[in-house]
Each structure stands twice: as C-alpha cells, then as structure tokens.
Amino acid sequence: MNKFRLTINVLAIAIFTFAFASMAQAQATRTWVSGVGDDANPCSRTAPCKTFAGAISKTATLGEINALDNGGFGGVTITKSITIEGGSQIAGVLVSGTNAIVINAPTDALVTLRNLDINGVGTGLIGIKIFAAKTVIVDNCRIYGFKGTGGTNGRGISDERTAASPIPMLFVNNCDIRNNVGGVAASGVSAGPIRVVIDNSRIQSQTSTGVFGGSNAVIMVRFSNISGNLGNGVEIQSGAQASVISSVLTDNLGVAAINTGGTQLSLADTSIINNVTGVSGTITSFGNNNVRNNGGGNALAAPVGQQ
User: Fold this and answer.
1) Cβ-Cβ contacts under 8 Å for 12 (sequence gap 6 or more)
2) Is the bond preceding 303 in cis, omega lying within 30 degrees of 0?
3) What's the gap between Cα 160 and its chain centre?
4) Spatial separation of the C-alpha atoms in residues 102 and 131, rounded to whole Å
5) Where are the domains of the chain?
6) 48-100: per-residue pLDDT in tens?
7) What's the rounded Cα separation, in Å, for the pair 100 and 75?
8) CA 183, CA 254: separation in Å to the nearest integer?
9) What is the DSSP letter of 49?
10) The dihedral sign for the CA sequence 146, 194, 240, 277
11) What is the pTM of this model?
12) Nearest to residue 187, comparing CAs of 125, 224, 222, 235?
C-alpha cells in the first residue's frame, strides 16, 4: 500500500511538473499572427495565429506580437505589459459596435501599439480605451471610423485611467486620428493627472473635439495638425492643462483652442487660422503665434516671456 501511494504521489508530481513546464513553454516572448493563420496554432513564425486575441494568451509578459502579412487581426483586451507590432504591411483591427483595443493592465505595465490600422467602420465605440497601465505608447497608427454614441464612446483614443500612482502616461507619436466623434481624450474621473504627449500627429475631421483634457490631465501637443473638426480643436476643462507648441489648428468649426475651466492653456509658435473661432477663455501666449482670419477670437493676451 505504501509503495502504491508513493507511486501515485510521484506520478502526480511528475504530471504537475510537466503541465507547469508546458504552460511556461506556451508563452513565448515573440509570437506571430497571419491573415491565413489559426488560433489553434502555437503562434510561432511557421505556425502563426489568426488574431491578436488568440496570440496574446500565448505571449509572455513584456513579449511582442508581430504581424507576418496583411490581414485583419481583430480586437483585443490587453492585461499585461506587451508590444503589438503591425510591421510594414496593413495590420488591421476592424470592429463594429464595440471597442477595438482595451488596455486594462497592472498599474506598472508598459503597453506599446505600433503600425496598426484601427477601423471602427462607423459603429465602433472606441479605438483604444485605456483603463489601467503605467505607460501606453501609440506609434504610427491610423484610428478612424469610431462613431458609437453614449458616454465617452466615439473616441479614437480614450484615456480613462484613475490610478494616481505611478503617474499614468500616454504617448501618441506620428498617428492619423480622423473621422471619429472625438480624437484623443484624457478624462479619468478620479485620477491623479494623466500625462499625454501628442507628437507629429494629425487629428482631423472629428464630428466633435480633436483633443480634450479633463480631470486635471496634463497634455502636450507638438508638431501636430488639428484641423477640420466639426467641434473644437483643443479643449480643456476641470483643472486640466494643455500646451500647444509648433502646431497648426485650422478649419475647425468650433473654437480652435478653448479653456473652459482648465488651469492653463498655453500656445507657442502655433498657427490658428480659418476657424469659426480662434481662441476662447484664458490663454497664455509665449509669443510667435499666428492667430488670424478666424470668424472671431483672433486676439491673444500679451505674450509671456520665456523662463
């Protein structure tokens, strides 16, 4: 009897060890998706998965999912530090009536989304919805067609993080965000300030506001074009701050730069031309701005000296 029990115990340990090893092996640091892949595959380069959702469970924390070829790889919920890399081909995320990419990771997580084509086909809710993570980097992505209604829906990027520590950061680099209800918004309701940096991006043809900051968000817009939006260009409320530097705000059908309860909205080396209204609310000018040919709001306060 004792030998039998010993054999059973040894067998159980062996099975547990084998299963644990198999699980560990199943999560690779680099995985692959393909338009002709299958989520039953191990997501290796020679046996890729079909969708980002299928690949993420087989990708280790801090790992990377790569697209092998053109394809539509579906929406995904991200719950850990990871990079999703679309590569030089069209790595599409096409959704209808729902969110495309939801980030709900640990508060110390780093998430990078690069070279993705994110299409809401007119009914999608939010392109990239951020609930939790330390740092989110969105590089060289196209986000469009998100026009779902209700609440915060219809945004290209909606940063709704509420954790105050570590300080949440969002970087939007070289992106095209167009034809949504709203472009980029940072409005976590009880957060310590979300920091947002938008660099070298085009935020155009939204049916509402291009860039919105609320709930004490701190936003920097640099070398960007915020144009042709049916609402405001850059808007801050609720103690938020925004700095717009070396950018163009033109042909917006609301106010190009508006402060309605924010702490500070500052402009430097920025052109605000041909909007229904140029500026509104308390605006700090650091000089060298070009505000003209708007239907109203063409006057800025005397410029503040550099420090």
Assistant:
1) none
2) no
3) 11
4) 8
5) 70-208
6) 999 999 999 999 999 999 999 999 999 999 999 999 999 999 999 999 999 99
7) 5
8) 14
9) B
10) negative
11) 0.91
12) 235
